[in-house]
Design a protein that fits this description.
This protein is mainly alpha-helical. It has one domain (3-149). 87% of the residues lie in helices and 0% in strands. The chain contains five helices and no strands. It has helices spanning 3-27, 29-40, 46-78, 85-109, 114-149. α1 (3-27) packs antiparallel against α3. The two termini are 32 Å apart.
């Protein structure tokens, strides 16, 4: 077993665990959001609490849109499909999802200040994934050019 296979296996397991945590968060989302609204944000207006619940669930949808393509990408890499156009498409989906989560958190930031931090983190992660995507796209182009010269 190669060292890379072990890392990919653990990354897939971590992705599955994060997906399970997102499912649990969805199940208890209303309770979690009410706790955040009442205890942390000190928001007691029911309309703002409902808006925060909507922001929470939109964020978890974005989370699934990050985790599922990530798992597919890890699966491709375990099959030695690393520099592949499918992976760059998956990274585009991940980046767009992270930007969507950031926008969702910006809206939530008007209700609870903690959402501003989450939006910055999501945008930073989107920047990292987008940068890696550009490197992958360049490597694919270089690989295709090398294949044509042989």
């Amino acid at each position: 077993m190669r060292y890379d296979d072990v890392i990919l296996r653990w990354a897939k397991i971590a992705t599955i665990l994060f997906t399970a945590m997102a499912v649990v968060a969805d199940v208890f989302g209303v309770v979690i959001t009410k706790y955040i609204a009442y205890c942390w944000a000190e928001v007691f207006d029911i309309r703002l609490v409902i808006a925060l619940i909507v922001v929470f669930y939109l964020g978890t949808v974005g989370g699934y849109l990050v985790l599922i393509p990530l798992y597919k990408m890890l699966h491709n890499m375990s099959k030695d499909k690393v520099f592949d156009r499918e992976n760059t498409k998956l990274m585009t989906i991940i980046t767009a999802s992270l930007v969507g989560i950031a926008l969702d958190c910006i809206v939530g930031g008007f209700i609870w200040n903690g959402c501003w931090i989450l939006s910055v983190v999501a945008l930073f992660m989107a920047l990292v994934v987008l940068s890696i995507r550009v490197v992958f796209a360049k490597a694919i182009t270089m690989k295709e050019e090398m294949d044509l010269t042989i």
